[in-house]
Amino acid sequence: MFFRFFVLLPVLTVALFLYGAIVNIGYIEENRCRMTYMFEHPQYTRLPVQGNERFPKYGLYAYSEGFVTQRVQQRAFTGAPVLFVPGSGGSYKQVRSLASVALRKGLDNNWQAHLDYFSVDLNEELSGVYGGFLQDQTDFLDLCIQEIARLYGPRGRSIRMIIIGHSIGGKLAQAVVEQAAGARYVAGIVTLSAPVDKPVALLDHYHYSFYERIEQAWKVNRSVTEELKASPKAKLPLDGILFITIGGGIRDIIVHDGLTASRYADLHAMTHNIPNVWLSVDHLCAMWCLQFVLVMNRALFGMLVPQGRGSWGFVEGKQQQLDTMTRFLSQPFASDDDDEERRIAPGSDGKQTLIQHHPEQEDWIEDIRRSFTERHRAGMQRTRVQMIRLVPDKPAHRYVRIEVINSEQSNWLSGCAAIEVYGNSRMCVKATPLTNYTLPVPSSKFDRFGALLDLHELKRFNPRWTHVLVKIPRTTKPVQFSVDVFNPSEREINITMPHWFDYRAHTILQDASTDDSFYRINVGGMTQTHQTIALDISAVACDGVKGTVVVKVHVPWANGYDRYAFHEELNKTTIYIYPPIEKPPEQEGTEEQQVPIQLDVHLTPGCKYRIRYAQSLRVTIARIVQQHVVLIPAHVVALLLLAFKDQLTQTAADDPTFVVGKLRSSLTKPGLLITLLASSSLTAKFLSLFKAIPPTETIGTPLAVTILIHLVSLGVLLIATLALWGAIAFCANFAHKIILRLIALPIPVMSSTFLSCIHKFPLAIAVLLMAISLTACGGVSLLCAAAVYFVLLSKAYEDYLENFVFHTARKIAARLFGARERSDDRRKRNRRRPTNETGDELMVINFHLPLFLLVILLALLNVPSVITWAKNYHYANTLQPDPALVPALVVLVCLAILWQLNTPRNVCGYELLSALLLIVAFISVLYCQVHVYRLNYSIAFVFLAITLHQIIAPKRREVETEDEPEEAAADGKEEGEKTEHESAVEKAN
Q1: Dihedral of the CA atoms 947, 950, 952, 957 (nearest 10)?
Q2: Is residue 478 classed as helix, strand or coil in its secondary structure?
Q3: What is the pLDDT of residues 754-798, one digit of tens each?
Q4: Beta-carbon contacts of residue 418 (< 8 Å; ≥ 6 apart)
Q5: Mean per-residue pLDDT, 863-878
Q6: What's the number of domains the chain is made of?
């Protein structure tokens, strides 16, 4: 029973992992982006680049539409240049959404302030998974920057451009500015859904070298964000370049949000927090989502300044550029935890322009109600000034939540001392604006603004003030505003992240008052990125209005990751809460890091709501799949090596005959999983004590995630083993029939030649595969080697079936007729039986099956280089550089020897080989989870060790090969008695 459960558990975990992958693809959040359409057919004009003869497969293009194409063909560029760099597998045509909107904006401006969009063609190379071309792409990008500067003539000497890089294109932009030639023409870099400081997966050492080189260059020439804020004056060479990073959010399943930020960025923003965007976008949607495209172009146009003779460029000075980007891309989070400078009302020093009131044209109203909502569907004929009294001594009057809809005035919130009297109303002629407290609230239908004020703090810093004013100008549009004054302790709810096994739903708010518009929920215990809470908000009853829910998520240790989630006209909505990045362990003891995740829930007045929460299994698994799927290859290799080690340790040291166990039996032993899990964790902690030893890659992985990855890897191996056995059995039966028909041909020469080719096949094909790896690509030769290995295993299984049939027939004949086979028939069968030294075909399959799986894994790890070779075959027959060449050659040489020898040989030293496999298994888990490319060398080392062992290890004991002694010994035995070797083999199998 326990055995069945242990076999079933990994398979169920694989199914759960597949479910998480399906959830990631399309069941977390709907795509609410609007398409960006062109008004005219887009045109891409190729521009010649000096030095392009080194890179014939790359190109530079300028975007245009309609009559603007003629200006581009005449090289008449007068706008500010923007260079778009596509990502992995991306096309230069992906610039059209950004460029088309900018072109329409320029035409609306009568071609005064406008942008010139350029795009780089990188041959749609998969540079995100193959890093061999990253340096070539960087060098070509540098040539493009210099060529764009030359297009502007004399003005090009001082021209400065903005580079927008999508995905790995953002990393190319970061790499090009540290080169002396083109850096002086770059004013800023904007990355879209780009893995900036860390790659998604390190599948080859070229990626690692590329990232490491950029990191070292920026570390020397660029200050980190905290240093720049402390000392704004540029000190290092790269400090003067604006660096903006933008992430896509939960819908981006390729580059998760934790990878999109950089410690060198001046500003980090997520699309779900950018004003007027407020939604998550997937990896490709970031380039055509209309909401984001509009905001991005507005930010770029906001930096334009005239440069004489109808020319335009970007404003000089990084601080001005950053202020503009912050205004359009950043959504400040105003709370009671902000610093003192933000809480002090602007204008208290008397330097800011005050708001002038005209009481004869306004209605001044002070309402005694603490919470109320005013709706004016037909608009307002007179300006209304709603007065909110500052009462410093009463806790019930400490906080106020104000929200206005369709207000046409920016300075709608202010504070003053209402000491003047007009008519029967108190009023103030001048008021101080509180614009820094107002924030746009997500809405797809209205202009909606809100503010959350601490009235006691406001009174403390402005003791003369008596009221906060909400000014609604007269309008014909429907207008609504709500005021909610409350005690924060009554609206604050503290919850804790449930345990990993607890998925019960908990109610934290039941039938809230219809006047309540704000609640703050503090979530404690959420530190890992996979931890997810599903917050269910239901509108129980509404007074003729549609329920609208806006939730602001603030993670105190993740700057730039604040998130808005809003749902309109829904009776029930589910919002998923998770930490975008892991809480830094070295800062967990500080006061800032102890602050829990804050959820500010903004509700629609007039509705009663019910709020429930529970741990979300589906999104938790989906985020584990998204962030940790890259760890599976290392665990698969480690488990396979441990299982192979268990196969080789089935024979005692003093036994005369070596026996290989079954792979499936070794994989289903519980000790295998427990050993790897416990030993790897203890080894990682032990190695961390030594500074001279490189840090391991298992310390930062949570224990629950590690166990899940172990189970998934084990399930993958079990399923793969069963599938391979089924495929081998099917193909062996099919091949058996074909071989019998070919051998039965009436031409003896053809039959003998065919058998001879079968005998010479392994060594010849191995030499051919090595030639393929040298002339084409190492990954191609590995894929072919896997196919050849499969054919050889099928042939071995066919031999096993043939001998099994003969052996069974002999036993049946002996039982029925008491007859014994003749020695000449025995010799013929022995000559027909191409076995290893131990004389068992099934043992040959058991020995080679884990090696076959290692070859498959090695081939799959190098599939990206195979795809790259195929895409670039038109330019070069051989892939240069080839990350799989050395491992492929080592493995192919070893396979040539193992295929030719009768392996496994009956030799000594399998204990030493097993110990070596154990060491490599732990190294794979400790050092190859993130640096996946290291598995190539681990697998190659395993093949080299096994091959050397099979060649140089001494034999255990000379096995008798003469037929006469065997026959005599067989005649002396009782019927049905087994030999010592047969018993050992059956025990292992």
Answers
A1: 170
A2: coil
A3: 444 544 567 778 888 899 999 999 999 999 899 888 878 887 787
A4: 387, 426, 427, 428, 466, 467
A5: 91
A6: 4
Residues 211 and 289 in one domain: yes
Using the 8-state DSSP alphabet, how is residue 153 labeled?
G
∠ CA 289-551-412, rounded to 5°? 85
Rounded Cα distance, 117 and 124, in Å: 19
CA distance 637 to 943: 13
- Give the number of other CB atoms < 10 A from CB of residue 234: 15
Give the burial string for 319-338 (b: 16+ CB within 10 Å, else e): eebbebbbebbbbebbeeee
Question: What pTM was estimated for this model as a whole?
Answer: 0.86
Strand 371-376 and strand 479-486: the pairing is antiparallel
- Which residue in 649, 650, 537, 554 sits closest to 596, CA to CA? 554
Distance CA 230, CA 169 (A): 30
User: How far apart are alpha carbons 339 and 311 in whole angstroms?
Assistant: 42
Q: Which parts of 290-345 fold into alpha helices (H)?
A: 290-301, 318-329, 340-343
What does the angle CA 199 – CA 226 – CA 593 come to, to the nearest 5 degrees? 80
Does residue 410 share a domain with residue 286? no
Computed on alpha carbons and rounded to an integer, the radius of gyration of the chain in Å comes to: 36
- List of residues 6+ apart from 930 with CB closer than 8 A: 202, 630, 631, 697
- Identity (one letter) of the amino acid at 847? F
Which structural domain, as residue segments, surrounds residue 794? Answer: 630-740+751-809+837-952
941-to-170, 577, 862, 917 alpha-carbon distances in Å:
36, 45, 17, 10
Is there a domain that residue 8 lies in?
no
CA-to-CA distance for 835 and 731, rounded, in angstroms? Answer: 19
Residue carrying the six token digits 């000379």: 958
pLDDT digits (tens, 9 = 90+) for 471-502: 998 888 888 889 999 999 989 999 999 988 88
What residues are paired with 772 via a beta bridge? none
As a residue count, the chain comes to 989
Is pLDDT of 139 > 60? yes
